Amino acid sequence: MELPFAESWKIKMIEPIRKSTREEREQWLAEAKNNVFQLKSEQVYIDLITDSGTGAMSDRQWSAMMLGDESYAGATSYYNMKEAVTRITGFDYVLPTHQGRAAENVLFSCLIKEGDVCPGNSHFDTTKGHIESRKAIALDCTIDEAKDTQLDIPFKGNVDIKKLEAALKKYHDRIPFIIVTITNNTSGGQPVSMENLREMRILANKYGKRVIFDSARFAENAYFIKTRETGYENRTIKEICLEMFGYADGMTMSAKKDAIVNMGGFFATNVKEWYDAAKVKGIVYEGFITYGGMNGRDMNALAIGLDENTEFDNLETRIKQVEYLGRKLDEYGIPYQRPAGGHAIFVDASKVLNHVPKDEFPAQTLTVELYLEAGIRGCEIGYLLADRDPNTRENRFDGLDLLRLAIPRRVYTDNHMNVVAVALKNIYDRRESITKGVKIVWETELLRHFTVELGRVE
Ligand code: F0G
After folding, report:
1. 98 and 122 fall within a common domain
2. Residue 7 falls within a domain, yes or no?
3. Is 127 in the pocket of ligand 1 (CB under 6 A)?
4. Residue 426 Cα, ligand 1 centroid: separation in angstroms?
5. Looking at the 3D structure of the chain, how many domains does it have?
6. CATH code at 431?
7. 327, burial (CB in 10 Å: exposed 0-12, middle 13-18, buried 19+)
8. Facing residues of 142 across strands?
């Protein structure tokens, strides 16, 4: 008999978690104004709000923490981090920042001006926020197939090359760069193929444009290329990473995901003028160029994390767990963005709570129901997160309305996934009776989902 699959690590340290009663959860959620971002973590049993900064570090990472060099300038920890980034991505200039959005802020401060257009594939919310707050446009050129959650295709995060070319023609002088997110978080943790990256690069060259990768989950993207794209079966993850980044001029990185640290990020590039400009902004916003908001110990852990998480076994363990949750939902018939993503399962709320009107935010309603059902905290990636159109101030209902169950790296077991799946099944079984959603009581202009206050529709 073939031996079953199992994790490529064992557990050395644990952290207790607690269940609660439905009455407690009802009270806590009311206090949190039906916004799970406002809950205390101790009120949560299984926390799938994000895979960002929530991973478990390895023994090698923890031991590297002890060797952190906290010098203000020129710390050895910076050079450890820089060496790892350069070896894995091929980028020589590395500017640390305290997290991914800080790298966006530093870089976009140099590159984006009012009226610009930044085409890409489903920009992440902070990326969109940093573009729109500069009165520029984040133009989504993701393939249309990504909007059909039931379509099972291997590279659903791809850039639509025709849409991109049309944008390059139409807005040519207003485009400071193309930004490609790998993997594509907002449309379901879906990967971008090497072929697509190559085609995108050819187009960028044709129109004389530079390319940035939003790289938070680049290693997971490389795993999908290795396991799904012809010609890459026998290439190592590190070889694939080098080829991927060969199609970009620079990268912003939230190291809280694929570098498996709790805090950290960076901007890396081979374009000296970008680095020179970003350095100045980095000093103003983040700190000196060899720490940029990071501790020496964290830069050391980042170097090791990047190295470990660009090894196949580690990625396979992680992505197989996401697939496992997907298979459980298949058993119960619960629709989610297919195929299972790299870091999360995105439940298609519009297909689960189809009696809740759009303007009562079905995915947020499902998020609320899941918390009440079992103390599980997911995250709405839908109409709330989409914010209002900056010009018309209307809600944007044209995208997907999903409940994201993001799985922290190396933290939960498959038993926890079983609990999540059954909790969702219980809601799915009584979905016909859920006809009312939530309404906005108070919201901010940008990135409203973090702080929005919601009431239940009676
Ligand atoms: N880009 C992508 C694709 C992301 O998913 C994130 C963060 C960022 C940039 C910003 O990085 O948080 O370090 O400032 N995503 C988290 C999430 C927050 O839950 O998906 P950050």
Report:
1. yes
2. no
3. yes
4. 30
5. 2
6. 3.90.1150.10
7. exposed
8. 159
Shared-domain flag, residues 143 and 285: yes
Give the predicted TM-score (pTM) of the model: 0.97
Q: Is residue 99 part of a domain?
A: yes
Residue identified by tokens 């983040």 is 286
Catalytic residue numbers, as ranges: 72, 124-125, 214, 216, 257, 449
Q: Which domain holds residue 111?
A: 59-308
In a domain, 92, yes or no: yes
CATH number (domain holding residue 202): 3.40.640.10
Q: Are residues 280 and 411 in the same domain?
A: no
The predicted-structure confidence for 433-450, as pLDDT tens digits, reads as follows 999 999 999 999 888 999
- For ligand 1, say whether the CB of 181 is within 6 Å of any of its atoms: yes
Ligand 1 within 6 A of CB of 221:
no
pLDDT tens-place string over residues 85-134: 999 999 999 999 999 999 999 999 999 999 999 999 999 989 999 999 99
Give yes or no: residues 411 and 318 share one domain: yes
Pocket test of ligand 1: the residue of 51, 54, 124 to mutate, having most ligand atoms within 8 Å of its CB, is 124
User: Within the chain, which residues score under 70 in pLDDT?
Assistant: none
From 248, 283, 308, give the residue that closes a domain.
Answer: 308
The token pair at 158 is 């791809």
Distance 100 CA to ligand 1 centre (A): 6
First vs last Cα of the chain: how many Å apart?
56
CB of 346 sitting under 6 A from ligand 1: no
Check whether residue 76 and residue 98 sit in a common domain: yes
Instruction: Classify residue 46: in a domain, yes or no.
Output: yes
Structure tokens at 144: 């249309």
How many C-beta atoms surround the C-beta of residue 172 within 10 A?
12
Q: What angle do CA 422, 412, 100 make, to 5 degrees?
A: 115
Last residue of a domain, one of 308, 335, 360: 308
Q: How far is the CA of 66 from the centre of ligand 1 (A)?
A: 27
Tokens of 300: 């050391």
Residues forming a β-bridge with 345:
405
State the pLDDT at residue 326.
98
